[in-house]
Amino acid sequence: MIKLCIPQLTKATLLAPALLALCLFASSAQAQGTIDQAAVNKANEFLKTTSRGRDTLGYLHFGAKYVKHTYQQTMNVKNKPGDFALVYRYNWENDGITDLAFLCDSKGYVYGVQVTYTNAFLSQPFGLANASITVVGNLLLEALRDNMTADEIQQVRRMIDNPDSRGLMVMSLKLQQNLGR
Questions:
Q1: Under a CB-based contact definition with an 8 Å cutoff, are residues 42 and 81 in contact?
Q2: Can you tell me the distance from the alpha carbon of 168 to that of 126, in angstroms, rounded to the nearest whole number?
Q3: pLDDT at position 123, please?
Q4: What is the pLDDT of residue 33?
Q5: 3-class SS letters over 25-79
Q6: Is 148 helix (H, G, I), strand (E, B) or coil?
Q7: How do the domains of the chain map onto residue ranges?
Q8: Which candidate, 73, 111, 67, places its Cα nearest to that of 90?
């Protein structure tokens, strides 16, 4: 018989993302006048599309069925005047919920993300995407190793050993936004 080791859920485990969000973001009621509404509109137009929602969910919960994503609120980013966070709720599978804050500069360009809430237990945000990078990366490395230089093999090995689906998602969003896609 195989025993499945599942960490015990505690109030601290469930509240950790919300507490982190409180530390990173100022109250949405504070200093709203410092956020440029045109920048908020620009970021929202970029993030609200269904295709962008599906792509983002692929990084958050790799392989999960996208249901919808909806704008929740705009918040100031602490210690970054003019910067703001747009929080979207992602609904996935039957009852999965993950809230993601997109950190934006004062011009409305995304530069980071922060999970502010999830009800996920086994499918933690970015977890399966990181695991798939490792699996697929190793398969690709073995298939292409004979056609790669030692330096290329070393670069790919670093990417496999340190998968960062969150970083890849942010980089993808930055590129798409800068290219007007």
A1: no
A2: 10
A3: 87
A4: 52
A5: ECCCCCCHHHCCHHHHHHHHHHHCCHHHHHHHHHHHCCCCCEEEEEEEEEEEECC
A6: coil
A7: 11-123+166-178
A8: 67
Q: What is the pLDDT of residue 156?
A: 83
Measured CA to CA, the distance from residue 82 to residue 103 in angstroms comes to 11
Q: How many CB atoms lie within 10 A of CB 48?
A: 14
- Write down the pLDDT at residue 24: 52
Residues 6+ apart with CB under 8 A from 13: 7
Q: How far is CA 88 from CA 11, 113, 163, in A?
A: 23, 11, 24
pLDDT of residue 23: 47
SS3 179: coil
Give CA–CA dist 125/61, Å, rounded. Answer: 6
Neighbours of 113 (CB within 10 A): 22
Q: How high is the pLDDT of residue 152?
A: 86
Residue 12 is predicted with a pLDDT of 43
CB 133 within 8 A of CB 165: yes
Q: What angle do CA 37, 75, 45 make, to 5 degrees?
A: 45
In this prediction, residue 64 carries a pLDDT of 95
Residues of the chain short of pLDDT 70, as ranges, are: 1-33
